[in-house]
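Pasting two entries for a bug report.
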Amino acid sequence: MSVPQLLGSLLVVALVAGTAPSLPAQAGPSARQAEPNTRVPEGDRGHAATVYPDRIATSPAQDAAHGFAVAWRTQASVDAPRLEIVVAGDAPDVSAGNPRVVIAATQALETRNGRSHHHRADVDGLEADTLYAWRVQGQGTWSPWFHFRTATAGAEPLTLLYFGDTQNQNTSLATRVIRQARRQAPEAKLALFGGDLVSGGGAGLGADDDEWAEWFEAASGLPEDIATAPAAGNHEFHKVHAGTPQETPALSPHWPLSFALPRNGAPGWERTTYWFDYQGVRFVVLDGTAILNLDAGPAQAAWLDRVLAGNPHRWSVVQIHQPLYAMRSDRDYAPLRKQLAEVLRKRKVDLVLQGHDHAYGRRALDENAAVPQLVLSVVGAKQYRAGPKALGSMKPVAEDTQLFQVLKFDGEVMRYEARTATGRLYDAFELHADGDQRRLVEIEDGRIAPRRCVRQASLKGRQDRCWE
């Protein structure tokens, strides 16, 4: 008799006798273990560069109405490949539009996956609010034709997405958040990332290149289609002279090659700071790691003041990886407040987007002030516990929650929404502009209940984290 027949017979006998059957014992599941940062098997080199263009990302030009830039990767046999661009049409004969050719600049990178070439093409002189078709070249092959719409010349309605730290288990767990965000706001034209895109830290060696491969896999379809503007986080740096008095952070070699960002940053920090204008909003991206660890505060603060002083637009948004106010109880970022707070007040910045402390929290820079609103959020798997100060000064707060943000600028109103990985509304507010004054309107309807961590420790036994 087969096992299923035997079990069935036992069940019939038990039902007749009025007793529960005694089934064969089965092995229980093994103890759960924390998931590794990448899905790459030991010794695998599946993320080596090939003849095909990959890791393709668009970024805004300083004047996003008239330009953008593209970064991509190929194997090392490809030098100075071409980008082709043409006004998009409805016929499949895209090249009949006589595409404009832009020759890319090329730089090499050595990683555990071998030598690769990274390319950058800057496209300028475009028409505002125009849909373009473009593609990039590999070795004897091309990428697909992608579409990219330039920004409008004026302050038209703008929807954008913000993502806090992705960092860990990007393909496994960040993918669903990014895809949910695209479903939530299919009209988004801009994506901001708050830093720590990868865990990194290995000067391009170790698992760094695999982590970057999985970030691009998780984000697939987003950086090719809409302008992508990340901040550098501390995990985009590695340690030089680690463990000695001379220990200092150095920028990962992947960072300046993975994105074609505007070259208009603070003097001395041009690779990790920049600004651009997009449909009536001025965006400024800072480097918090350099301020905290490399004495870059005065230079960045002075630069930030100059950039914001020249802002002709109604709205301004600042992006920085480390928050001005900590979420964890064992951290403080007083140097950021010392260097930046007065400029943020003086220039009446509307919103500061932050990451680093892996939880969610919102507060104003100053108590009872409408702006700047300071937002701290996280996409990825690593989840911290909020400390008492954060719980007392931020509202709402979330632990153990993957989130993304949708921002909509429309005339005199900016609407902000924080949504969970499943699309549920967690936080929402509006800023209403009256000249240079702002009125904060909290949106309570539709929010889910506050989320706190219910685990005693992470799978690795860490009590300061909820998950990792």
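Entry 2 (this is the one that rendered wrong in the viewer):
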Amino acid sequence: MTALSSTNEYTAISKDALVEDTKIDFDVFLKNDLSGRSRYILFCRGNQEFSADRKGELLNRNAHRLYISTKDTGKYLKYQEKNLRQIVEDYSKSSLQKSGALYQVAKNLAQDVMDDPKSGENIERASAWVDNTITHILQNENTFSSLFEVASHDYRTTTHSINVSVIGLLFGKYLSLKPNELECLGTGLLLHDIGKSTLSQDILNKQGDLTSEEFHEIKKHPKAGLDILEHNDRIDGLSLKVVIQHHENNDGTGYPYGIGGSDIHLFGHISRLVDAYDAMTSDRPYAAAMRPFATLAEIKKENKICFNEELLKEFICFLGLKNQRSKSMPT
């Protein structure tokens, strides 16, 4: 069976995206270009198993890309999420391929969380994603550069939450946090802006400076996030520290409670730092992205006000390690 169509009706996926011996819920096509026209040939029908023989056939055909119907993108993302553990633990896949799958799943998941923040199922999915990301980070030395490479730098609540969680987990590993601590930190960071689901999109996406009234609304989001999550028994109290404290400043000038110093939990200090770094290195509605070096210089200026001094020193060393690795290590 073949399908003749413009390419915008089909979406390319990597030939390594399918996991052997798993059921596929969507049709998979191969692309054949003839006389300037693209013909899509059905390779594997939905509801069939992607067997070892099927995988071998792809190798024999030397197929580098597979295609799915664009309307099946949601099914494909659910398939990836369902099989994420196998993808992460597949030693035949590169660190970059695994990082790409993690990030792709996270974008879909983070949007679902913001659309339905009170869903227990979505919170469970978030926790499972963090667990798989930790596995990837702990098992592979190349995750440092590969996760940074696939990160998106357009500042939306969803992409920002993913970036903050990934950077926080990598930094947490650098700080030698225990696996259960990493899980709490990563989950809290992924959900740290969940309270923004209660705010107006006009305020969140506003070009230019906020009015005092609009900023007053923005300052409500940590408490709104705590209100959404604190009665969910799937969320650890340490994760809630991130949600409620990620805008508290070291000198007590932050919000929502104006606490400072040792009254802020370690995870609160980490989240304040990582949240600021990712925001400043991303394109925001009201400001263009800054280069990492310029961002760190700006953060150092705000050191005594916003950030824990010792933690900032560690963060600078951590990012220096990233730059060294990106120059010397393959992905």
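Dev reply: Rendering is fixed now. As a check, the viewer should reflect this: The mean pLDDT is 87.
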